[in-house]
């Protein structure tokens, strides 16, 4: 199978989906370089990968800094060899009504969710193109397809990641494959670190995360299956696929309904 025994780099691998991706790669016999700003969490993931029979190394890396991402690509090649799989997974959420989100929080979200992914692609794709082999998993979100109100920075960064993945999928075919992963909610630490979420919305989001039939290990497995097949869009959850279909079929109706729901919720 294409990913068996692969060399992979996972950004944001210290927690949540990134950790699940590392473990799923280990299950497939992969060697993983776990890149994160959270060194303790990355070490924990590395222990879990080794306990699962895989090989892991860790690298402290802030995906907002081009120099650090570029250094990560060099270090990955030197430490684990040519990279077959890059998972641009590190991400954060900045949410709230448009006018209430500070410009600082906008920049924080754009720097990590968008520039982090651009830097990752820029640093790793040239070698993949040279080798005529490579798989890039860009972790977007269903929010990038559906743009619900009340989370503008998150939506625009994730839709930009979808657009970047579409562009690169076409530019780098047939030897290098790019996949955009667009899940709806599943349980991770993302809301604990989110900016702009009040207690009520944070509680409501966490409830949706807990209720999801698919959790991080399922999302990781589905994502890597899609990567292996060279699928451009991976939309693991049924609700995400259904709303995406609805939006494409009836865009005006879709946003009119969302506007009514948002107005009702804002009144409460
Ligand atoms: N949890 C969900 O419901 C959900 C839904 C759709 C998409 N996603 C996406 O999944 C990805 C992973 O998020 P998660 O839900 O596992 O959250 P998480 O908070 O559990 O994990 C995010 C990881 O990114 C790391 N990180 C944050 N800033 C970083 C930086 N500047 N440089 C390097 N690493 C950094 C964190 O330390 C953490 O380990 C994100 O891109 C997120 O947008 C999550």
Quickly list its features.
268 residues, Rossmann fold, alpha/beta, globular, binds nicotinamide-adenine-dinucleotide, single chain
How are the SSEs placed, and which strands pair?
Layout: E1 7-11, H1 16-27, E2 31-36, H2 39-51, E3 55-60, H3 66-80, E4 85-88, H4 103-131, E5 134-139, H5 143-146, H6 152-172, E6 176-181, H7 199-211, H8 216-229, E7 233-234, H9 238-249, H10 251-267
Parallel strand pairs: 1-2, 1-4, 2-3, 4-5, 5-6, 6-7
Helix pairs in contact: 1-2, 1-8, 3-4, 4-6, 9-10
The structure holds nicotinamide-adenine-dinucleotide.
Structure description:
The protein has 268 residues and is an alpha/beta fold. A seven-stranded parallel sheet has the order 3-2-1-4-5-6-7, sandwiched between helices. Nicotinamide-adenine-dinucleotide binds next to helix 1.
CATH topology: Rossmann fold
Q: How many β strands by DSSP?
A: 7
Biggest sheet, strands in spatial order? 3-2-1-4-5-6-7
- Unreliable spans: none
Tertiary shape = globular
Alpha-beta classification: alpha/beta
What fraction of the residues are assigned to beta strands by DSSP?
5-15%
CATH first level: which class? Answer: Alpha Beta
Number of domains: 1
How does the major sheet shape up? Answer: 7 strands, parallel
What is the level-2 CATH architecture name? 3-Layer(aba) Sandwich
**Total count of helical runs of at least 4 residues:** 10
Bound molecules: nicotinamide-adenine-dinucleotide
Any idea what the radius of gyration is? 18 Å
Distance between the termini: 52 Å
Q: Give the integer mean of the pLDDT values.
A: 96
CATH homologous superfamily classification: NAD(P)-binding Rossmann-like Domain
Percent of residues in helices comes to 55-70%
Report the order of strands and helices.
EHEHEHEHEHHEHHEHH
